[in-house]
Amino acid sequence: MVEQEAGLRAVDLATVFPGRLGRPAAVAVDRVNLDVHTGEIVALVGESGSGKTTLARTLLGLERPTRGRVRFDGRPLAYSMRALRAYRRRVQLVLQDPTGSLNPRHTVYEAVAEGLRIHYGTRPDEQELVADALAYAGLRPPERMFLRYPHELSGGQRQRVVIAGALVLEPEIIVADEPVASLDASVRGEILALLLRLRDELALSALVVTHDLGLAWNIADRVAVMYLGRIVEIGEVDTVLTAARHPYTQALLSVLPESPATTPTVLSGEPPDPARIPAGCRFHPRCPILESGRAERAGVAERCRTEDPPVLDGAGGHQVACHWAHAVS
C-alpha cells in the first residue's frame, strides 16, 4: 500500500484512570502510537479489557490523555469546548448498539438532522443533506424513511440510520466501535460492504474497533492488535493475518473457522487487568510460546519475564512487540 498522510494520529498516547478504594491506577492505554491514513480503514483488535475502546474514546477527545497527544490534520488536538466541537464535525463516532444510540421518540429524520442542528443550527438545505446522508447509508428512497421511528426498523436499518447521522456532517474519519456486533449474520456483510463503499466513494477513513479478527480480514487495510493497553502487532491486514508473528495474534487467529490451525490455542492464566500490568512482556504470564519452552530454546525466556519489548511506532510495515518473534525471524 502506498504511504499516505496520516489524518489521525496517536503519539505516545497513555490514558490512566486513578484507582479507587486503595486499588492501583488502571493503565488502560499505555504509550500507543497509531496512524489512520486518509482513505484507509484500520481495524483495532483485541479481547475485552485490552484498552481498545478507551483508545478510541481518547482519539475522539472523549477522554483526555494522561501522556502523549492526539494529532489531527497535522496539528495537536486542543481540548477547549470550541476546538472539540469543530473536531467532532470532522471525526464522528458510530456506536455498537444502534437501538441505544437512537432516541425512540425521534423520527429517522430528527435523528439524522440532530447533528446538523447542534453544529450549524437551522439550515435551508437541511432536508437535502438528511436525504443525501440516508441515501449514502443505503436507505433509499430516503424520503420514505423520514417519518419512521426506530422501533419500525430492522437492526440493519437502525445501524444505517446511525451511520447516516455521522455522514450528514461530512466527516473525514469515523470511529466505529463494534459496528456489527449486535447485528444478525445476514446483515453484517451489508454494513461492512457499506463501510467499504464509503471509503471508496467518499475517501472516508475509519478506525473500526472490534474483537473479531475475521471482521478485520474482510474490511481493513491495516490491523492493529492490542493487548493490555499496548499495540503488540500492526501491519497490512493480509500480512498480519496470514503471517502473524505475535503469539497473542496467533491465538486470536486460531479460533477462526478459516484458520489453518488444527486446534484452537487456549490462553492460560488470568484475563488482562490494566491495574496490574506484569513486569517484562505484558503477555508473558499467558504466553503459549513461553509455556511450551520455545522461548527458552530461542534464548529469550528471561527477557520475556523481565524486559518490556519496545513500543511500536504505529507507522508502515509489519511490526511486532515480541522478544521471541524477533529472535526466530
What does this protein look like?
The chain has one domain: 3-Layer(aba) Sandwich (Rossmann fold), CATH 3.40.50. It is built from 14 helices and eleven strands. Helix content is 36%, strand content 20%. Strands 6-7-8-3-9-10-11 form a seven-stranded mixed sheet, sandwiched between helices. A four-stranded antiparallel sheet has the order 2-1-4-5, covered by helices on one side. With 329 residues, the chain is of the alpha/beta class. The model has no long low-confidence stretch (mean pLDDT 91). The longest helix has 18 residues, at 185-202.
Task: Provide a quick synopsis of the model.
By secondary structure, the chain is α/β, with parallel strands linked by helices. The protein has helices at residues 52-59, 81-90, 98-101, 108-120, 126-136, 155-167, 185-202, 213-219, 237-242, 247-254, 288-292, 294-297, 301-306, 323-328; strands at 6-17, 26-37, 41-45, 67-72, 75-76, 91-94, 173-177, 205-210, 222-227, 230-236, 319-320.
* CATH superfamily placement: P-loop containing nucleotide triphosphate hydrolases
**Beta strands, count:** 11
Whole-number total of structural domains? 1
Q: What form results from the Cα inertia axes?
A: globular
Strand content: 15-25%
* Number of H/I helices: 14
Under CATH at level 1, the class stands as: Alpha Beta
What are the secondary-structure elements, in order, as H or E? EEEHEEHEHHHHEHEHEEHHHHHEH
Under the CATH scheme, the architecture is 3-Layer(aba) Sandwich
Main β-sheet description: 7 strands, mixed
Kindly report the spatial arrangement of strands forming the biggest sheet: 6-7-8-3-9-10-11
Judged by helices, strands and strand pairing, the structural class is alpha/beta
- Overall pLDDT metric: 91
The N- to C-terminal Cα distance equals 23 Å
- Please tell me how large the radius of gyration is: 21 Å
**Which residues sit in consecutive blocks of at least 5 with pLDDT less than 50?**
none
Helical content stands at: 25-40%
Oligomer: single chain
Domain ABC transporter: 8-253
Organism: Lipingzhangella rawalii
Keywords: ATP-binding, Nucleotide-binding, Transport
Protein name: ABC transporter ATP-binding protein
